[in-house]
Structure formats: structure tokens, C-alpha cells
Design goal:
Elements: H1 11-19, H2 25-36, H3 39-70, H4 76-92
Helix pairs in contact: 3-4
Length: 110
């Protein structure tokens, strides 16, 4: 075990440090440091996973658009449902490379 000689803390960090019970500060700091060492790796993995799912959703959006163009639905309700799905998928991809800013679904029958 190593001794912590000194540390310079921000005002917020000092307030947190002071709020911890005196007998457990070192133990809490050790736990915090060891547990937070994997947070960056976990955050990167989650970002990649979210990016993958956005890519999958974008491919579904493309397939729905293609389906509507090639095989129009038999009734208006299905068409409205599919158009809503396309718009929602595109909105969920906002801010990523999968977002299609030019996507404004045009009703080809009107």
C-alpha cells in the first residue's frame, strides 16, 4: 500500500472529500480510482455499440424506403405506419453519419 502525500483538489472535489467520513476517505478514494479505470473503456465500447445499432437502423430505413417505392402498401394505414418508422429512424440517427438530412418523404401518389 502506498501513502498519498499531497493532492491539489478543485473546490468541488474538496467539498466531496470533506463530505466523506474521516475514517473512510482513503478507502473511498482507492475504490473510486480502481473502479473508474475501466469507465473510459466501457464508454468507448458503448459508443461503438450505439453506432452499430444506428447503422443497422439506417439500413432498415433504406429498406423501408425501397419497399415503399417498389411495392406500395395495400392500404393508407400501412403507408402512414411505414412513413412514421422511416422518420423516427432518421431522427434517432441525428448527429451521426447515418442521418439523412435530405430525407423528406414525398407521397408519390399526391
Amino acid at each position: 500500500m502506498r501513502q498519498l502525500i499531497s493532492a491539489t483538489l478543485t473546490e468541488d472535489a474538496a467539498a466531496v472529500w470533506e463530505s466523506w467520513p474521516k475514517g473512510s476517505r482513503s478507502a473511498q478514494m482507492s475504490t473510486l480510482l480502481t473502479e473508474s479505470s475501466t469507465l473510459l473503456i466501457e464508454k468507448q465500447a458503448l459508443s461503438r455499440r450505439v453506432g452499430h445499432f444506428q447503422g443497422v437502423m439506417a439500413s432498415y430505413r433504406t429498406n423501408l424506403l425501397r419497399f415503399l417505392r417498389l411495392e406500395p402498401p395495400y392500404d393508407q394505414l400501412n403507408r402512414v405506419i411505414m412513413e412514421g418508422m422511416i422518420i423516427e429512424i432518421n431522427e434517432n440517427c441525428w448527429g451521426t453519419v447515418h442521418y439523412d438530412p435530405g430525407l423528406e418523404y414525398q407521397d408519390e401518389t399526391s
